[in-house]
Amino acid sequence: xxxxxxxxxxxxxxxxxxxxxxxxxxxxxxxxxxxxxxxxxxxxxxxxxxxxxxxxxxxxxxxxxxxxxxxxxxxxxxxxxxxxxxxxxxxxxxxxxxxxxxxxxxxxxxxxxxxxxxxxxxxxxxxxxxxxxxxxxxxxxxxxxxxxxxxxxxxxxxxxxxxxxxxxxxxxxxxxxxxxxxxxxxxxxxxxxxxxxxxxxxxxxxxxxxxxxxxxxxxxxxxxxxxxxxxxxxxxxxxxxxxxxxxxx
Length: 249
Known about the structure:
Blueprint: E1 10-14, H1 19-30, E2 34-39, H2 42-50, E3 56-60, H3 66-80, E4 83-88, H4 105-133, E5 136-141, H5 145-148, H6 154-173, E6 179-186, H7 192-195, H8 199-206, H9 217-227, E7 239-242
């Protein structure tokens, strides 16, 4: 991919304070995009953009708050120009390594509010803008858990399955507008979120990867940047595999 692949484009990266979001924001910036990092953790988002130059900004946003999402998307557009790319990496696992009967409903609801409802709010905020300009790329980070289900992670698995379903529907709804909506389904990417999980849960997931390793942030960011590039123009409503061979359908 050329160094100016995203020249003239504004990319919004949600969950840009760390992990896959930070890696994606960095790569998009290196390839010419003006980048807005949105995250509830403003200090982390600011750290992400500090090295990216004057065409990168950080904004604080709670993805579960409809008004906050609309305001942050509007502010990003006001400061950086029309939004061409949305990369949504916001997500939590919730409490893991528990069977369904032992899951607190409050934890289940929180995971779904962030992982699924938050993704819907983001799509709803950016899609009309993209349609009006005749071009856009939306990418939501889902999970292999949304395809196969991970035991001990019922809330996470359910929320990511819902996200995949949402992407399928939105891809069809906007297929004739110049806007694509896709998802990425990683297996285990070594991030702080994964490091915070119980070792038994991480082993359960990693043991099912045929490559017998975790994915890297670079691998995730490179895949994301291709999906949201102009070159990825005939795929929408699709969930791309990033699972080391665990799920290839």
